[in-house]
Design a protein that fits this description.
Helices cover about 40% and strands about 15% of the residues. With about 500 residues, the protein is of the alpha/beta class. The two termini are about 40 Å apart. α2 links the parallel β1 and β2. Strands 1, 2, 3, 4, 5, 6 and 7 form a 7-stranded mixed sheet that branches. The chain has a 6-stranded mixed sheet with strand order 8-9-10-11-13-12. It folds into 2 domains: about 300 residues, inorganic pyrophosphatase (n-terminal core), CATH 3.90.1640.10; about 160 residues, DHHA2 domain (Diaminopimelate Epimerase, Chain A, domain 1). It is globular, with a radius of gyration of 23 Å.
Length: about 500
Amino acid sequence: MMCQQLNDVAHPPAGIWSLAEINYSTTMTLLQFLRQARQVHLRFLSGALSEPPIYVIGNPSADLDSIVSAIIYSYCANNRLPIKSPRPHIPLLNLPNFPAGTELYRLRPEFSAALWSSTNFPALKSEEKFENTLQSAGNFLREHVMTVADFAQSLEDQHVWKQILADATLVDWNAFPRPSETDKGSGSLTGLSCVTFRTVACIDHHVDEGSMPSIDALPEGQPMIIQPGPGSCASLITRELRQRKLWDATPEMVQVAKLALSAVLIDTSNLTAEGKVTDLDRMAVEFLQSQIEEQPQAAANAKGDWDLEAFYKNILHAKQNSLDLLTIGEVLDRDYKDWTETSQSSGKTVKMGFCSAVKPMRWIVQKAGGPEMFLDSVRSFAGSAGKDLDVLVIMTAFTGTNDKFCRELFVSVTGDNEAAVKGVKRFVEHSSHHLGLIEWSPLDGEDIPELAGDCLSILNEKSPLWRKLWVQTNAAGSRKQVAPLLRAAVAKL
């Protein structure tokens, strides 16, 4: 959709909504809030809102932590921040190609499971119950959740052709993919070029990209917290909400606590992930669990007490099986992030894409149809519109034999870029020991004829395009650790 500057929105407002007409979030169930947030968004586009909303946006991988962080922060900050002029907050899922509904369920079944487990046991309102199935949950998501694809569609539906300026709080990331050249902290999202977002707050647990405005440039009372280390961004947000006294002890907040807990537990493997769990994560789990247990009527169904372990296993099962319904391209794109670095000596740029998957490489290769077709899929994905990658990295994380947490690493140069080859080689030279990279062998006890002998050698070539598959014995080395190492290797050439 092409954007043009027009003076007026095509449909004049039927009436102006004041903030008094928009409820404080903690007086509503979580699902009531989500429904209202969608309506506030549509009112904003039509010009019928006295104060513009703040969109709370997670990172482009749109994983569970990113989605949950956006929702729980929006719920608690809604019409309570900024301090001097509180405004509505709207969670926006950073998915440009998937509208909320059955497609979202197919792509993120673990989120549907988390939302279902958080709001249906018990359901505070009978009309809010839904089944955790493609059709039932899909219909429910369509009414309660908004993705970037939905945002773009609503612009078209309301015949909004003008360029829009909107405020945003970033959670679980700290840099726009298309930053403004003039205004630090401003930028646009993939799939929403017609909207320029201005950052008014940020809470993130990744390395600081240096793209955010200073705290002095933010509206009074808005947070700017970039703290690498915690396993989950939801842990940081839980602490921040508590410190700001935005966490109320109500039955409605039990739903929020469960949803927040789902993200922390999944991102830290139930607080067992070596090198990833911090005291902040442990304190978040302890606090969230206490909030749930202190409201027994709002926490458990008629069959008994709420069970933390069963809650975690239900969401984990959904995540572990989340790739089954996807194409190989969707598998690679499902949890994807990219960065571009410039070589200090040559000035050449290298664009690197990182894919994370919860299945072993042999599963991914088999899904593609074998090693050759897998490489075809890698090349096709790397060269697809909007990506144009020089390097593609695939990181797997799964439970292997004897219930051991395992990681694999696949790195492939995907184009004719000398700086990319040199950067990858430098990364291998300087980081292999730290990451514990060793020759690949199966870790899940499966007989894998597709990854033996000559077939395996196809994934380990130095020409015409350099590529290598390893077992990563340092299981603590997630994308948060690996990506900066490769980026630094390229930048320091």
